[in-house]
Amino acid sequence: GAAGGGERGPRAPWRPLRAPSPPRGCRLFASAGPDGRLRVWDTAGSRLQHEYVPSAHLSAACTCLAWAPAGARQPPSKDGPQRKKRKSEVGGEVDKQLDILAIGTAVGSILLYSTVKGELQSKLDGGHDSRVNCVRWHQESCCLYSCSDDKHIVEWNTQTCKVKCKWKGDNSSVTCLCISPDGKMLLSAGRTIKLWDLETKEVYRHFTGHATSVSSLTFTTVKPTNESKPFDGITGLYFLSGAIHDRLLSVWQIRSDRKEKNAVMSFTVTDEPTFVDLTVSEVKEEPVKLAVVCRDGQLHLFEHILNGYCKKPLTSNCTVQIATPGDGDSTPKPVPILAAAFCTDKQSLLLVYGNALQPIIEKVSLNTSESHICLVRDIQKVLSLKTDAAVTKVKTPVVNSDAKVLVPGIPGHSTAVKTPALGKEKKKNKRKPGETEESIEERLGALDIDVSKVKTPGGLPQTDSFAVLLVQGLESNDAEILNKVLNTRKENIVKNTVARMPIHAVIPLLHEVREPALLALSYKPHVICLLATEIQDMALYF
């Protein structure tokens, strides 16, 4: 997830969940999951404000997010140039700051989305030919930096939507970026960490990094702890890094000599970090406050003054968990914390917990003198109150016979609403003795689908038809339909069909694929493996 809207704060990428960035001003929270949809929530009431589906989103799913800094200029609209504004209008635009969200995708493009207008502003193409792993805005200019699995780093001009500079960042995937406080240096990481001079695009320092891919990079100080020497903008600063499958967060110091390449200290947590936020130390004696959300759903809070080398890994000052009340005979159950970020006062925290599709967002003030805090929350009651409030705003439209209604869960399919004639009894869906069962073509005809149009030259239905048939077969447990759909060996049809499956059909499809009887069918076993791979992310996500 990501949050924003207001004062600019530190950033932290989140590769495992494909989309995070700490809150900016604690006003908005954005998230993007495997379904490719961008969702923006209002943190004040946990209300969904925007839901955006990029075109071809199933193949171009969102992989990373980054809010533009408070002073970023509005990128050009996708609709082309607009008329020149009057001076009075320009003044109004300055007062009304746009919230621009940069969205990296799995196909290498970057989208710039306006949460104020609720629409796509522009699209950055031609920089990457593989998955975008991280996007970062420059604090002062209109530049955007991105890195990818294609091993390159790209500097973008968001006003022209063109590549300003592109260079090779590593011999393998570049997974994370971070810009220095003065805006003149750039940290990049795959497994090793490099510090680049943005003017010359040359490596200034190397660091050993982690054994696995780095998932978070952020500076923890803006001034050196040793104030006796003149400050060049970078020497003496500390930065933090985390990696996937690594329970240690490492702290590094940028030194004047090139000898020291190892971490000066580390923080230990209970599981792999999935979301990281911190308060930046601006003076020598100010401690750094660190909030780390782990894959096990726990939140770890650290507070430490960075002052040189520390051999032993530091443990958290406070661990926060959330659980249900467990009234009566029910047992309390843990509620996973999805994200956490410090508010502008650097004391209170914004917690995001529960279900990623419908999260609960709450501002809390914690007594961190306690080593362990368990917050009791009745999430079912909170969600039911939210649902009741939403239901009162729903209006039932008047539907006539000319209207077209979308079939739930099947994108792009529509069917006419048929009103029964007066005086006629409703036709029962039962076969009389001696009657044969309806063919698949007849069933498609009942769904108002033209069979001649949905079939490919090879005689197989297209993806949308496959999704309709597969859902129908799973619900009716019809072996003939299931065999017809599952017998295909075309990889792209399998991928697109699974991608178009409605949520409620995912688990039945998993059970169907795991059936031992499937292995005896005529189609090749690799189709089963492909199906399992395609639905793995969806199943784990829900």
- Computed CA radius of gyration, to the nearest angstrom: 27 Å
Task: Kindly estimate the percentage of residues that lie in beta strands according to DSSP.
Answer: 25-35%
The structural class is alpha+beta
- Categorize the overall geometry: globular
Mean pLDDT over the residues: 77
Helix fraction bin: 10-25%
Distance between the termini: 15 Å
Main beta-sheet annotation: 6 strands, mixed
Structure in words:
The protein is an alpha+beta fold. It is built from nine helices and 31 strands. The chain has helices spanning 87-95, 379-391, 440-446, 451-454, 463-476, 479-486, 491-499, 506-514, 525-541; strands spanning 2-4, 28-32, 38-42, 47-52, 62-67, 100-105, 110-114, 119-124, 132-137, 143-148, 152-157, 162-168, 176-179, 185-189, 193-197, 202-207, 214-219, 238-243, 248-253, 265-268, 273-279, 288-294, 299-304, 318-323, 334-335, 337-342, 349-354, 359-364, 372-376, 404-406, 414-416. The strands form eight sheets. Strands 21, 22, 23, 24, 25 and 29 form a six-stranded mixed β-sheet that branches. Strands 1-2-3-4 form a four-stranded antiparallel β-sheet, with no helix packed on it. Strands 5-6-7-8 form a four-stranded antiparallel β-sheet, with no helix packed on it. A hairpin with a 4-residue loop joins β18 and β19 (248-253). α7 (491-499) runs parallel beside α9 (525-541) and α8 runs antiparallel to α9. The radius of gyration is 27 Å and the shape is globular. The relative contact order is 0.07. Residues 3-24, 87-97, 390-396, 407-420, 422-427 and 448-460 have low confidence and may be disordered.
